[in-house]
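User: Hi! I'm working on a homework problem where we have to compare a predicted structure to a textbook description. Could you give me the structure for the chain below?
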Amino acid sequence: MVNRRELDPEASPAAAFGARMRRLREGQRWTQEELAEKLGYSSQHVSAVETARKPPTLRFSRRLDQVFGLASSTETLEREWREMRHSALLEGFPEYIKYEGRAAEIRLYEIGIVPGLLQTPEYARVLANSAVRRGAITPEQADERVAFLAERQAALERSRPPMMLVVMDESCVRRLVGGPKVMNAQLDRLAQFAELPNTVLQIAPFEIGERRTFDLPMNLLTLPDLSVVAYAESQLRGHVERDTAAVLPLLTAYHQLQAEALPQAASVAMIHEVRKGTP
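Assistant: Happy to help. Predicted C-alpha cells:
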C-alpha cells in the first residue's frame, strides 16, 4: 500500500488548499493519477499541490473547478487561491474572510487609508501599484489584490446586506492618495456610503488625542449566531480572535471610540469640506 501523507489544513493556506483538493478527489473516488489525467497535469504535480509541496497556480485552480464542477459556485478553488495569494504574508486573513462573508454586522476602524471595503477601484489600484514600486509585491499580485478586493465588496451586496459601522481616523480623509482626481472620487464614495440604510460612518478627529482607543486598525464581526470575531493585523501578520473573554474588551473599546468620534452628519460635513479643498 502506498504511504498516505497526512495533511494539516491549519499549517498554512497552501495546506488548506491541498486538504480540500484531496477531499474533493476522494469524494469522487479518483486516484491522483486519474485526477491528473482529467486535469491535463502530471500525477507528480497533483501530488505536490495536494501535499503543499508546490503552491497552486490560477490556471491549475480553474482546471480543478472545471473538473469538480465548482466553476459556477460561490466556493470555488479559484477564490480560495485568490485568498491565499492575497494574504500570503498575513496569517489569519483567509480565515477572517470566511467570517466576513457571512457576518450580520461589520465594525471597522482604520488609520491612514480608507478601509478596503469602502475603497474605489482606482484608490485600491494606486495602493497596490505603490506596493509594486516598493518591491513588496509583484505586478501579478497587485492585480490579484485589486480583483480580490472587488470580490469581497461584491460578496456584501446581497439581499440582506450586513449592517456596517465604520469609524475612520481623520487621517484617512486628509491623506491624499493617487492625486486629486482619485481622492475626490474616493471622498464622493464615502459620502454615498453614509447614505445607505445599513451603514453608519464616523470620523475620529485628531483632536480626540489620547482618547483614541485603538492604535492599530480593528475589525469586529457579529455573526448570525450573535458571536463576535475580532481581526487585527500588523505590517507582517494578521490574527483572528474568537475567544469571548478577549473579544469583549475590544468591543467595549470600539463603543468608546464611537462615543468620541464625530456623529455621522458632522463626519460627512468634514468629508465635503476636504472634498472642496482638493483641487
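For your comparison, note the following. The radius of gyration is 21 Å. The beta strands are 105-110, 163-169, 199-204, 218-222, 228-233, 238-241. Good luck with the assignment!
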